Amino acid sequence: MKTSDHSPKSAIKQPGKIAVWFLTIYDIYRFIIRFFKEALLPPYEFKEVMRQCYEIGYRSVLLISTTGFITGLVFTKQSRPSLSEFGATSWLPSLVGIALLRTLAPLLTGLIAAGKVGSSIGAELGSMNVTEQIDAMEVSATNPFKYLVVTRVLAATITMPILAFYTVMIGMLGSLLNVSINEGTSASAFFQSSLESITFLDITASTTKAILFGFTIGMVGCYQGYNSSKGTEGVGKAANASVVIAMFLIFVEEVVCVQFFSFFIT
């Protein structure tokens, strides 16, 4: 006589992929809403926010300096042949300044921070989740969400515009080196020419992008690390997902911002 193979686990219907996707979206929505609630309510962790700002800036400044300088140098070198065909090499400082401020600097800074800072946040919170440090903070009457998530997201949002404008400055120095060698342009004439075409809208667009990129990097890294699965494998997945998802969202936000601010450009 055969026994029934039906067990209590097999009797439970597992949610489908679409249901899991909607549940994940809802979980992300609750995570973001909770962030804004915790960020507005006291107590405020000012000291931890400042420490995270230092950590994010310190970890990124060397790589951003190198990449920004090379970007300005290479972009100037590659743009010269096209402008020289029309006898407009004098427009190089203006072209580089606008390109760096509008698009290259925020995007470059966001991508570097997504790889450097995003993975660090995801791995750090993921390891704390695996070792049950987050649970221990809850038991000790400490709000781990405010101390771990809110501080890191705020720090990334604050630091990213500063790093983006720093990238603009470093990129302009790389461009200046190339222009001074080939055209003999002085530093004062170079910066005067590059700043003449920059408008308030360019600065606003660059700042808005940098703020969005910083918020996205911090939020994605914190969400992946805070909700990582148990075990060392979960830490690796959290760090990897933080980088991939943050970079994808940065490109999406870049497209949306370009379309939005193009309406204001006459």
Characteristic terms for this protein:
266 residues, mainly alpha, 83% helix, 0% strand, elongated, disordered N terminus
Summarize this, please?
The protein is mainly α and 266 residues long.
| Tally of DSSP β-strands | 0
| CA gyration radius, whole angstroms | 23 Å
Q: SSE order in H/E notation? A: HHHHHHHHH
Question: Roughly what fraction of the amino acids lie in strands?
Answer: under 5%
Beginning-to-end CA distance, first to last residue: 83 Å
Structural class: mainly alpha
Largest sheet: none
Give the integer mean of the pLDDT values: 87
Structure, explained:
The protein has one domain (41-262). With 266 residues, the protein is mainly alpha-helical. It has helices at residues 8-11, 17-40, 46-84, 92-130, 133-139, 144-183, 187-196, 200-226, 232-262.
Layout of secondary structure:
Blueprint: H1 8-11, H2 17-40, H3 46-84, H4 92-130, H5 133-139, H6 144-183, H7 187-196, H8 200-226, H9 232-262
